[in-house]
Specification:
single chain, 599 residues, alpha+beta, nine-stranded mixed beta sheet, 17 helices, 30 strands, 29% helix, binds sulfoacetic acid, binds manganese (II) ion
Length: 599
Amino acid sequence: MNNSEFTTNQALLDWVEEVRALCQPEAVHWCDGSKEESDRLSEQMVASGTFTRLNPKKRPNSYLALSDPGDVARVEDRTYICSKRKREAGPTNNWMAPAEMRKKLQGLFAGCMRGRTLYVIPFSMGPLGSPISHIGVEITDSPYVVVNMRIMTRMGRAVLDVLGKTGTFVPCVHSVGAPLAPGQKDVPWPCNKEEKYIVHYPETREIWSFGSGYGGNALLGKKCFALRIASCMARDEGWMAEHMLIVGVESPAGEKTYVAAAFPSACGKTNFAMLIPPAEFKGWKVTTVGDDIAWIKPGADGRLHAINPEAGYFGVAPGTSEKSNANALKCCARDAIFTNVALTPDGDVWWEGLTDEPPAKLTDWTGKEWTPGCGRPAAHANARFTAPMANNPVLDSAADDPNGVPLSAFIFGGRRATTMPLVFQAFNWIHGTYLGATMGSEMTAAAAGGLGQVRRDPMAMLPFAGYNMGEYFGHWLEMRKEIARPPKIFHVNWFRKDDDGKFLWPGFGDNMRVLKWILDRCHGSVYAEETPLGWMPRPEDINIEGIPNYDASTLEAALAIDVKGWKRELMLQDELFIDLNADLPKELLFQRELLISRL
Ligand code: SAT
Ligand code: MN
């Protein structure tokens, strides 16, 4: 299909022509988003060696891609926020002056698509036409990106209809940075080994990505648009773009409550988004609105309303099992793209943790033969599945609702072996913002040279805020004024251990027991004790009936307030506060002082 048959949007046509002239592709293809188109591109990638078709009896309509071993994750040290002034990017982002970066990128993009097809991907972040949604258009020279974007976003012709003649879009340019000379044979995973740049221009709301074909470096709707650029749009327009999952919880009586939660990486975010309640919670249902990102706007009812801007899951495969997340396995049981997992002899996939016993023989993520005990992992630790949310057996009925879902609670979590109790509730919005701003994960004592160190990841946004982190906290405080009925704010920690290194909480589906207390607090139907940290449950307020080998004294330890540990925690927070000092809202400094005096 060619340009003007597709759109009457002159700004889009002009921009595509400009990028075409710069990148010099062999052909241009406007994506219509159809299944036929995706099947055709997938077939093409099977032929070129990028894809292996999985056994259709075991894994219908699914493919495996193995990346270049040097292109396996987001590259944070190559990610830039190019605002006019360095201060606007803040101390936690890489920065380069826009003019300097543009000059550099002009050089890199000139002729970078030679011998390849330029694909134009119109996509909507959020339900088509929702007042909370925004349109983007990604130009890429990677067919792998096209078929992934079709799963991860609402993509294709219908988006151009919504864009119309005069609608605006966020332009996203992506190239693997590997032009082909005439007659040159392509490799299965083209990328640029020397140069990688993931660049955001917040003032003009543009994204330019060069050199990587992997995940968030290449699927530009996700972290680049839905978090970094969207956080800037949200600040300017009075809404919020957050690195949060969204779940609905339905009681046996049919009462539905929605909560959004931010956890640092490796804290079981996808598991929580698809939580299966324990047997004791008969009649309770947890449903997924989103597993990674939330766009949140004040509604006419005085509440915050959230949508999931994405339409699929880009989930970490290793560790996903029947026990940890049976629903995620159903999501990728068909229609999925796997990247950097292992291949079984019968054409299915495997990764560490999928089964207790590994298969006797595999092809590993580097394409080499693998046997148990060979000393290498079979799947890369950041191996992923891309799966449509429509496959999710517990998809929330409002996942596609253009009005979003009303939020009753925000939950912040950390991965903390010490100090942080299982759950507590902030006294108010400012206190809650402070809890989010100071959240983090404990590095193991070994990794930190003896002392447990805390890696701060404010609101799980450290690599994703598109502007100054201190100013971002200020925006959180400002948002309180836009809403009459703010969500209550909680802090949880599933990972506290006793002195022998044993977990004090079972986690996984049993997190429902803590979630239930949170919901009851939202509905004002449960007692809480006022403590120096915030409102807390007494051990008897959390139902532990039916947890194997678990008792009230362990729960008591999980909930205990360790005053000595908190004094250390307060000292450790200094590091973050000093880094962000210039733009840190004074309210957060006061919260720290108040906590010190309460302790
Ligand atoms: O590769 S993604 O950025 O999409 C996922 C992640 O690294 O968090
Ligand atoms: Mn994420």
